[in-house]
Predict the structure.
Amino acid sequence: MDFVIGGAWQGKLAYAKETFQLAQEDIFYCTRQDMPDWSRRCVAGLEEYVLGCIQRGEAWQLRPRADAVLICRDIFCGVVPVEAPLRLWREETGRMAAEIARQADTVTRLFCGLAQRLK
Amino acid sequence: MTIFISGGCKNGKSTLAEEMARRLAGSGNLYYVATMIPQDGEDMERIRRHVRQRAGKGFQTLEQGRRLEDCLDGACQDGTFLVDSVTALLANEMFPADGPWDLQAGERTAQELCRFAGRVKNAVFVGDFLFSDAGIYDGPTEEYRRALALCHRRLADVCDSVVEVCAACCILHKGVMPE
C-alpha cells in the first residue's frame, strides 16, 4: 500500500497518477455522502469521507486493497477550528492518516508539486 | 540562480530570503520588490517596520504590488531580486482595491512569475504556505488558495532551488542552497 499526503492543491493526485500509472477508472474520489469504493486501486480525498462520517455520527473504516494508493489532505496545521464537527474532523483525519502511514509500504508528502519520501 | 521559499507564517522566511538574496547578489545590484499595497494604518506601520529592518542591508526598493514584470523597466536584469511575497502579489491581482475582483488571475500571475524568473539573473521568491489547515472556505477564498498553490507549484517547477522553512530551519526540497 502506498500513501500520498500533503496540503490542499499541492499536486497529490497528479503525482499519484504519474507514479502509479493510474487511469481515471482506477480512482475513486471520496464524497461526504458515500462510502469509498475500496475495490478501486486508488481512493482519493479521504478527508471528505471522514467529514461525511462525522456529519452522520459514524466511525470511519479502512478497507484498502493490498496494492492500494490512498490519498489524503493534510488538514492538521491550522488553528483549532471553533466548530466542534471541524475539530473532530481534523482529529479523526489525523488518526486515520497515522493509521494508514503505519500500514503503508511508502508514505510520500507533496509540497508545491515536489515529492518528499517520509517512509 | 532562482530560489522559491515557502513555509508557515513568522517562521523566518523573509529573514532567510534576505540572507540568500544578499549572498546571490555579491557586489551586484540587489533589489527588494515590495509587493504590499497599504490599505490602512496597520499596513503602513508594517511597511515602516520592514523598511527599518532592511535599512543598511544594501537593498534598492522597487514598489510593485501588481504586474510584477513592470518593475524591470527601471532595474538592471543582471541583478538579484527578492520578491516578498507571492501571497501579496496574487491577492493584489485577484482582489484589487480599485476595481472588480479577478478570480481568473491565478494562471496569469503564475505565468508572469515564471517569466520574471527567466528574465533576471537571480531571484528569490517568498510565498506563504496556507494549505494544511482544517478550514472550509467560501468560494473566492478557496479560489485564492487554489491560485496561490498554482503559483507555488509553477515556481517550484522553474526555480533552481525550493526551500521550506520551519522554525527558521530549512528543508531543501530541490536543488542546492546558494554558496
About this structure: Chain B is about 40% helix and 20% strand.
